[in-house]
Amino acid sequence: MSNKKALKEINEAVKYLQKEYKHTLQAGIVLGSGLGNFTEEIEIEKEVAYKDIPHFPVSTVEGHKSKLIFGKLGGKRVMAMAGRFHFYEGYDAQEVAFPIRVMKLLGVEILLLSNASGCVNPDYKVGDIMIITDHISLFIPNPLVGKNIDELGPRFPDMSETYNKDLIQKAKEIAARNKYDVKEGVYVAVTGPTFETRAEYRMIRTLGADVVGMSTVQEAIVAAHMGMDIFAISVITDIGLRDDGMITTHEEVLEAARQAEPKLATIFKELVAAI
Ligand code: HPA
Question: What pTM does this model have?
């Protein structure tokens, strides 16, 4: 697709949503697998199904709800994606990133991302939460490949500080206040849908990563391209490097995410209140 057509499609989605919801937005939130119940924290003012928004992809994976939620959280106005788009579902990298671009053109400057991930750091356990301080995106297609959309950001965006230091600091303070043991570390993005082989989990650890997952990074890349302030957090849902003969299942991932959700909900809510 040409960059002009891509921008036109983003703008058409933005125009549609501006008619549906007229308030100024302070933050955008993307909810990961098993973390969709977080929307109960939002005082909902408007819901818009993805299928009704021009050019919006539609989420297919179990555990996702496929709608945008607009409303109040922590005294601020937010929009949340209940259900995100994954490369492994068959969307290309630009489609995965489309809603984030729409958010930015709707006026959202702060993006909060969440996901379920497998850990390769031996100090982590299932149910832990980890603030993402950096990522490795080498195994997934970069959503900025193609003619640059100059209206959105530069051809060669800096990625040396993708995750906003102030937001990380605030989240750490919130975690400490609530007595949560929160980790900080590096997320490696893979395409999925296969979970990793044992050799791959070992390689990912060797690369300097703490967790691995199938989302978040393509969204973070387009958000960084547009100069958004990004905060991202992982719920550890399985142990990649385990020697108990067990295997990772999607059900296990969803269940672990559900159990950790209250911690994540508190952090997001208090973080939004603090911005
Ligand atoms: N690997 C990749 N993606 C994941 C995992 C994992 O172990 N757990 C949850 N998402």
Answer: 0.94
